[in-house]
Amino acid sequence: MRILFSAIPFDHGRSGISVYMRNALKALKETGHEVTVAAEPEAVQDFAGFPLIVAPKWTRRPVLSMLWHLFILPFKIRKGRFDLFYLAAANRRAAAFCSVPTAAVVHDLAAHRVPGKYDGFRMFYQKKVLPFFICRAEFPVAISEATADDMTAFLGIPREKIIVSWNGLPERTAKPAGTVLKRYGLEKGGYLLYISRLEHPAKNQYTLIEAYEKLPASFTERYRLVLGGADWHGAEIIRARAAASPLADRILLPGFVADEDLEDLYRGPRPTSSPPSSRGSASPSSKRWIWGSPAPVPTAPRWRSWAGGPRCSSIRRTPTPSPTR
Questions:
Q1: Host H or E run for residue 261
Q2: Model's pTM, two decimal places?
């Protein structure tokens, strides 16, 4: 099959969606499909070996990228050249029209669940513009049962029309470096770990810091809190909250964690944490489990559906006030 695969936005390869894109492309290529990639100019080197449709340099600004993808890219999707348009992040980008069938992959609908997740324009785009085009896709795809439920609840797509295609675990691409704990002054078994981009309020690190402060001193003296991930929207709020904490010296924000360091970090902590404010993929916990790291499971529906029912021990999130951007 001849597929045009939209890898926009790629987030500089530092988000869960970019990980999904890399592995989906690898799987499509290995199964013999002819894949052309629509890519941002700064991401061209990440898709070596694939024919490319490269967005203009003026699309580096998110708003212009949204408009180019919506109104200009569709003219490049010609019937006879492609058999399918694979929209790998349909909750981020859309095409106003398309001459071939579209598979629209939705990872989450966080904008519908987290007030103020983005600025006013992006909230309008996420809640009003994208849903219109997702609903028109021939093949709406969700990465979990919870996301599929949200697509029905918020977008009105009949549940029977939605294809649930679970995220999986990629093969190990890099041998663990074995130096990450020493680099950050961590001891094996001596820290709590949460890996997610630093995004407020969506990823909920602010609440996690507050919860950590309420733990007994005997616990926080023994276990540090490690919040690994690249800076994203609202990262400055999270960093300011950590710096102002009475336990600031026990809280580590190492930034983006490279693939070769992830396994070592996941093998070393006490139970890791999973407190995002929105629903979507449960793949971070699957990495913890496969690498032997214990992980408490929140009561959010996305985790129950991933586990096949309420069979895992869980922790309950109690919302607390936090500043908005």
A1: helix 259-267
A2: 0.76
